[in-house]
Every structure is written in structure tokens, then in C-alpha cells.
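A sample follows:
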Amino acid sequence: MMTLIVAIGAQNAFVLRQGLRRHAVAKVVAVCALSDAILVAAGVAGFGAIVKMFPAAITVAAIAGGVFLLGYGFLAARRAFRPSALRAGDDVNTRPVLTALALTWLNPHVYLDTLLLLGSIAAGRWLFGVGAVTASITWFVALGYGARLLGPLFAKPRAWRVLDGLIAAVMVTLGVTLIAGW
């Protein structure tokens, strides 16, 4: 269960970045944790069966999510190659809540993981769902606020360049995979 939540992806990369920047961490963590709670509850309640009846919805979500992830990846690549954007006080996301919502709800992997996979494992077992939601909240709080411990490392522009480069690589790879796979 925890491996579905901790998997490196767009949402976790964004939470980490916001935690490192110490910008709107509480809001971003709350959006991600609440979104996961809603999706886990829907999965446990059996929503996955409905999604299986409408596979076109997954295809549309995959393509839209892939395009979004490609755009996010290219922005991260631009930050990695633009030294002025690497200082901790610069390039602060002015819409962190909207970005967190988009990275969560436009990501087809979220639906596959929470509604289909977790939902099929936990179908009707609410205690399992409570455990998944607790693990999710714990993870997002630890990631968002634990990122501060990495602050000294990210005081150097080179570390930001590496992080943004890794984020770009993951986002572009996920975006291409989603678009090509559907």
C-alpha cells in the first residue's frame, strides 16, 4: 500500500519542491492528502468497477495527463538550464494549490493506483482504506516538511539544477509513456 503512495511521480516531486522552497507547504500537503483520501474512499467503495465500464475515460485522462506532464517537465528543464531560476527565493509557484490539484487529478496513474489497484484489493474493507489514507497523510507531511532538512544542500544552485533536471526527466518520461501507451 505504501509503495503506491511513495512512488516517485509528478505529485511527489511537486510536494518536495514546494517543501524545499518553503512555499505554501501546508496548502499543498493538504490538497494532496485530501485528494488521496477522496480517491482511496472511492476505490474502497467500488468506483473502480464503474471506471472499468468506461475505458474511454481512462484514455482521455491518460492523454490529457500526458500532455500536462510534458508541459510540467519542460518547465522543469527550463529551470534546470536557466541559472537565474535556481536561487531558492526565485521562481516561486504563484498558484501552488492549482498546480497540486492538476498534478493529482490530471494524472491517470492516480486513478489506476487508487481506484483500480487499491480499490480491487480493498473493495469494501474500510479499515484497509483508513490505513491507506493514514499512510498517505503521513507521507505527504513527511515529504513536504521533511524537505527542510535538505535545505543546506539546496542552498547551492547546482543542487537545484540536478533536482530540476531529475524532475524534468521523470515528468517527460511519464508524459511520453502515457501518451504512447494509450
User: Anything to note?
Assistant: Residues 29 and 141 are 6 Å apart (CA to CA). Confidence is low (pLDDT under 50) at residues 84-89. The radius of gyration is 17 Å. Residues 55-81 form the longest helix (27 residues).
